[in-house]
Amino acid sequence: MADKAPQTAGISPTNVQQYTAFVPYEPKPDEEYMNDAQIAHFQKILEDWRGELMAEVDRTVQHMQMENVNYSDPNDRASLETDMGLELRARDRERKLIRKITQALGRIKENEYGYCESCGVEIGLRRLEARPTATLCIDCKTLEEKREKQMAQD
Question: Phi and psi at residue 122, in whole multiples of 5°?
Answer without folding.
Answer: -65, 135
